[in-house]
Amino acid sequence: MAETNPIKRYRSNLQDEVDSAALYRAMAAAEGNPQLQEVYRRLAQVEEAHAEFWKKRLVGLGAGDRKRGPGWRSRTLAWMARRFGPATVLPIVNAMERTGSAGYDSQPEAVLAGLPAAERSHARIMKAMAQPPRGGISGGALARIEGRHRGGGNAFRAAVLGANDGLVSNLSLVTGVVGADLSSHDVLLTGIAGLVAGACSMGLGEWLSVNSAREYYQQQIATEADELAEFPEEEKQELMLIYQAKGIPEGQAKILADRIIGNPDTALDTLAREELGIDPQSLGGSPWSAAGTSFLLFAAGAIVPVIPFFFAGGMAAVGIAVGLSAAAMFAIGAGTTLYTGRGVAFSGLRQLAIGIVAAAITYGIGKLIGAVATG
Q1: With 80 as the cut, is the pLDDT of residue 13 above it?
Q2: How far is residue 258's CA from residue 319's CA, in Å, rounded to a whole number?
Q3: Which CATH architecture best describes the domain 7-131?
């Protein structure tokens, strides 16, 4: 339905801008780092300019009203910034900017004035500030230097969880059909089928996930290219603020931003990396490589409870399968301590308990189904 009266929307936009400007002013006042102070002040100035834009629109409709002050949420966050420091509220502001960055995309007046690009710029600047600077001295950066947050931790974690998924799911499947009193041959076929089906599902899911992420990144870079072509000065200012947020003095940040924006190809590559956190060359990696890795990791875990049924049968094969799986589950749980920091015994036994409970449940269900099927 077409909008008949935009006054309510204009007033809501105005209030949002007033809130943001007041919050950034409070963060600037509470910030001890002069470079970050300037970033917050510049952000506040942009929000104040946006507020003036909506005030003029309201006046043009004969709806100019009283001077607006910040709302309760903005006042509360401002108080927290003054009391505990801007870093305390920075994650909240980062989340707010991320959520609201697309708010102007469907508003034609805002689009014509270039407001959506500015809001996305603020969201990216907040994201950059919320992350520890690469060469700074924040606690997060020091922790990374000391090795407490390992860069390869995510890859290792994914590998452990992938193998664990295959192990627990296929052990549960095998014990379920054992409970149903199927022959060792049937158990072997079922285990192999579960391995192949699960690994294919994991691989396909990973391919879709990575490919979707790549398509999203490509769309983000295309949007950034459009904004760079349409608003080069704003993009330069944005890049300069991001470098200031990373700890580079204003003068050096301006020189660096000028030099980068002067070359369109370099500018787009740099903006994609600095603002969006995207490597234009890799776009998050190869979906085929991710799919293959996921397939193999799942299969590596899923093959463990099946191995005994290749050379043994009956309860002997079941006992060996459970023993091998238990040892593997303990090892996987112990391996997680490399990125969780928990004790080896605790993590290993917890993982073992989870796997045994899952296998026991499926064994009981298989036993029940087998009894019903045989009358």
Answers
A1: yes
A2: 70
A3: Up-down Bundle (1.20)
